[in-house]
Design a protein that fits this description.
Number of helices of chain C: 6
Low-confidence stretches of chain C: none
Chains: A mainly alpha (311), B alpha/beta (287), C mainly alpha (208)
Largest sheet of chain A: 2 strands, antiparallel
Helix content of chain A: 55-70%
Low-confidence stretches of chain A: 1-22
Radius of gyration of chain C: 17 Å
Oligomer: heterotrimer
Order of helices and strands of chain C: HHHHHH
Radius of gyration of chain A: 26 Å
Number of domains of chain A: 2
Shape of chain A: globular
Structural class of chain A: mainly alpha
Number of strands of chain A: 6
Structural class of chain C: mainly alpha
Chain lengths: 311, 287, 208
């Protein structure tokens, strides 16, 4: 936190005024807002990419909700450690609630039939315990999976993603395509912003429009945006042509293609260790669940507790 | 010295168009010269430089007649990578040319395509970022920089290839006055320090004319005039009829010439006009 | 809005002219990438604006999938498969493994429309009743039925919906996609197709 004294802003006749300005330096990317500085950046992008695989996929193997809750807490701690602006998570709050609403509603209203289901009454409605608990299991698992992805995109720039793909020897046409798509998305968003600002400058007040009119407005934005995209395709195609771009990434005279940006990152010993650890953990979890069912619902203390109450 | 570019009886018609966009183009451009191409809109300026670069006919459908020779070889016999190495090209819209995630990647992209080693790339990056004053921008993303900065980056990314011929198609048209000045400064530096052949399509004649060794006037798909700047502006009335904005000092001196007060050659800059104007005032003073 | 055209005139847009050679090139790769970018934004914004979990109500992204394949053939199909993966990750609309599993369904949601327009030689500018029919059934309803069947099955396989909810989920997917995509797709095809058809990137066949 930095304190600005009133003199520094010229308000000399207002004494003892101090402004506490939190400085959390963030940088905008298409994929989110990432911290300008973060201890996570000392790890190679491929190490961070493996964290996406581990954190964003491994919860599939976990049925016990307690473990997935712990998984989510671990991810949140990782974000805090990575100096992520946690207020960015606000945009996901509606999704968190609506997913819960959707999943639990389905479990209550369309539980299906099974003689082993244990029914109980709640506010006059018959609810089947196994369905509700399974909804809880799935919900927590989905949240863990989503937070695994969110963590990755809030701590990695587009370049990091591309470097990780290049390091993993993903072919040049694919990595270049992904990069160009991301750049295209950014251009499209900038154009959309420009068009909306132009509309506002002409007096359009979107907030006062009914939902139906707003939907119509967004649909009509698409026409100039697409015509711009089409024009840009020719221009970008020409720009790539003059830079000697070829689809397969061939270079003049044959030979290996240099990747300048890859050489900015160093793959250290601890990256090797962490990658191996993450892969090992992933495989272990998969084996533990698929072969030995170590993470099944039966092993959930919460499940045991609820069952003891109901039976 | 043999000309580096020779266009011989060049015609080009875009697919679906009735008229030829280029007609009977015969033009020679000397090595290491600075050539400006001017003319009203739809004159065929961009089409002409696109032909020199090889964009036409490779990226466009249409009918091409005549020949284009660059560095002694027909352009049709060159590969895309050879063309990329020999001829740099900068378009008017900086936004559509920035295809990478960061400035560094953008600068390196062309060099990676040509196949330079990492050390070579680093050396050229150092040189080109200093030349275009973009050292502090390397880590920035495209949405963190202005249009003028993007255009400087585009120029830098092409310069890094050290092409023998460097074409800029209306490089300042989408920039603010400060951005325009920065680009002109880069062109001035290139002319003074590098042995590149520069071809610039511009409407901003005021600043481009003093840099030029040759000015080419185009209209209606044809080359109407091609001369050194001094000879080019000796008769400005036809230029003004075409809507060409002649440098103010040249126009002023031309009026004085008509009044019998000034003698050719007409100046292109205020500095060139100071001496003769002082003489006129001294003579008037004596009278 | 609807004009009388002969079948020959209507289908002419898909026919190669005598001596015309069309080949895949840089412009197709660029257009695919830009379309993927467009889809990322439309898909992510659509999911965020009306989130209902994995089946975001009124997801207009399918319009991009269909229109992309109608205009750009297989290139549009590639974009159709790829952009939801990135859009879902950005908006957290679906976990990564689910998004990967969705890909064949997303590809179908795009390419079926592209196939339908080429097979039935329908006018991409929607100038005839036939083209409207092909658009409605071939580019919207049928692809969304197939995509919805695939997607709801994916959700069931991941345990995200109960077997009893499979049909409701499927119906919601089909209706939610179809309504939004019909409106957006019709606007794009009607007003932007005439421009697209004149460009180099427009694919009369599947790759060029």
């Amino acid at each position: 936190m930095e304190k600005f004294h009133s003199e520094s802003i010229g308000a000399t006749n207002v004494e003892n005024l101090q402004f506490n300005v939190p400085i959390r330096r963030m940088r905008r990317t298409l994929l989110g807002t990432v911290p300008v500085e973060s201890p996570l950046y000392s790890f190679h992008p491929v190490t961070r990419f493996f964290s996406l695989i581990l954190l964003g996929v491994a919860p599939l193997f976990i049925d016990t909700p307690e473990l997935n809750v712990l998984w989510i807490m671990l991810i949140l701690l990782l974000m805090i450690y990575g100096r992520v602006d946690m207020s960015r998570l606000k945009i996901y709050v509606p999704l968190i609630f609506t997913v819960a609403l959707f999943m639990f509603s389905i479990a209550i209203l369309l539980p299906g039939e099974d003689p082993t289901y244990i029914p109980f009454k709640f506010m006059g409605i018959t609810i089947y315990y196994q369905r509700i608990f399974w909804a809880l299991v799935s919900y927590v698992r989905v949240m863990a999976l989503l937070f695994g992805s969110i963590q990755y995109f809030l701590t990695n720039r587009e370049t990091d993603m591309l470097v990780s793909l290049q390091t993993l020897k993903v072919p040049f046409p694919v990595t270049y395509f992904v990069g160009l798509s991301i750049r295209g998305a950014d251009m499209f968003m900038q154009d959309m912003k420009t068009i909306r600002e132009a509309e506002r400058a002409r007096g359009l007040d979107e907030g006062s429009l009914a939902f139906k009119d707003r939907a119509k407005l967004y649909a009509m934005y698409m026409i100039p945006l697409f015509t711009l995209a089409i024009r840009r395709a020719d221009e970008i195609g020409n720009a790539l042509f003059v830079r000697g771009y070829t689809f397969a990434g061939e270079v003049l005279g044959g030979g290996k293609r240099t990747s300048t940006v890859m050489n900015l990152y160093q793959f250290k010993v601890r990256d090797t260790f962490l990658c191996a650890l993450q892969v090992g953990l992933f495989v272990t979890m998969a084996i533990l669940q698929l072969k030995f069912s170590q993470f099944r619902i039966d092993h959930s203390p919460l499940n045991a507790y609820f069952l003891s109450i109901l039976t | 010295m043999a000309p580096i570019i020779v266009l011989n009886n060049l015609f080009w018609q875009y697919e679906g168009q009735e008229d030829f966009a280029l007609r009977e183009i015969c033009l020679k451009i000397e090595e290491s010269s600075f050539t400006s191409i001017i003319g009203p809109n739809e004159a065929g300026k961009t089409t002409l430089v696109s032909c020199i670069r090889g964009l036409i006919p490779r990226s466009y459908h249409g009918i091409l007649r005549g020949s284009i020779e660059v560095l002694g070889k027909n352009i049709a016999d060159k590969t895309e990578l050879e063309l990329a190495k020999e001829i740099g090209f900068v378009f008017a819209d900086p936004e559509a040319q920035f295809t990478a995630m960061t400035v560094l990647e953008e600068l390196a992209f062309g060099m990676e395509n040509i196949g330079f080693s990492l050390n070579e790339i680093k050396e050229r990056l150092e040189w080109v970022t200093e030349m275009t004053n973009i050292q502090d921008l390397l880590d920035k993303s495209p949405f963190e920089i202005s249009g003028g900065q993007k255009q400087r980056i585009t120029i830098a990314s092409m310069l890094a290839l050290k092409p023998k011929i460097f074409i800029l198609d209306e490089p300042t048209s989408m920039l603010d006055p400060l951005g325009k000045d920065q680009i002109i400064n880069i062109l001035t530096t290139l002319k003074e320090q590098e042995a590149m052949t520069l071809i610039v399509v511009e409407h901003n004649i005021e600043q481009i004319a003093p840099l030029s060794d040759q000015i080419v006037l185009m209209a209606d798909g044809k080359v109407l005039k091609s001369d050194s700047p001094q000879d080019f502006f000796c008769d400005i009335e036809p230029l003004e009829r075409l809507g060409i904005a002649v440098p103010h000092i040249t126009s002023f001196a031309s009026n004085l010439l008509d009044l019998g007060l000034y003698e050719p050659p007409l100046p292109l800059t205020i500095e060139q006009a100071i001496g003769p104007c002082r003489l006129i005032l001294e003579q008037r003073g004596r009278e | 809005m609807v004009t009388k055209m002969t079948t020959q005139q209507e289908g002419a847009v898909w026919e190669l002219k005598e001596g015309e050679i069309r080949q895949p090139g840089i412009v197709h790769v660029v257009m695919t990438a830009l379309f993927t970018g467009v889809g990322i934004v439309v898909g992510a914004l659509g999911s965020l604006s009306v989130p209902l979990g994995f089946i975001s109500a009124f997801w207009p992204g399918q319009a991009i999938q269909a229109v992309g394949s109608i205009w750009y053939g297989m290139w549009g199909g590639i974009a159709a498969a790829v952009f939801p993966l990135i859009a879902n990750s950005l908006s957290a609309a679906a976990p990564l493994p689910v998004s990967i599993a969705y890909m064949p369904g997303n590809f179908a949601q795009g390419i079926i429309g592209g196939w339908a327009f080429r097979f039935f030689k329908a006018d991409p500018s929607l100038k005839t009743s036939k083209s409207w029919l092909v658009f409605t059934f071939g580019a919207i309803i049928v692809p969304n039925i197939i995509g919805g069947a695939w997607g709801s099955t994916v959700l069931r396989m991941f345990g995200l919906i109960t077997p009893a909810a499979h049909l409701v989920t499927f119906a919601g997917w089909v209706v939610g996609n179809s309504v939004a995509s019909w409106v957006l797709g019709a606007i794009l095809l009607r007003f932007v197709s005439p421009l697209v058809i004149r460009t180099k990137a427009f694919c009369k066949k599947y790759w060029a």
